[in-house]
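G., the chain you wanted modeled:
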Amino acid sequence: MMETITIGEYGISIMGIDTCWRCGRKSPDVRLTIHHGIPQTLKPKRNVEIPICMDCHDEINKQDIMSTLQFIYKLGKNTEELIAMNQSLLSQVRKASSIIENLAIIKITTKKDKEEPK
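Predicted structure as tokens:
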């Protein structure tokens, strides 16, 4: 079977290969599938398609899922930290606002006292 590498409008497709690109096992001993470099669920405009065996495909997908879960976990932790920082900042802004309002009341009261005849 002749190896064909097609570079087209939608990416790179490698076909006609009877060997898994990851482990090197050949078909017909193993069933080859096509692995998309960028998951199709992300609907990329371009992609890379590579023939790999089912075992390697499963392993790569597990690694992709674990990486995604780690990313989501870190994102959640970072979000929790940002929320805590925002709550702390909001509390400080409220305190400062209260102090400013109290100062404004004192100034307004002082100003009224000066303007009103006694």
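The two ends are 107 Å apart (CA to CA).

Shout if anything looks off.
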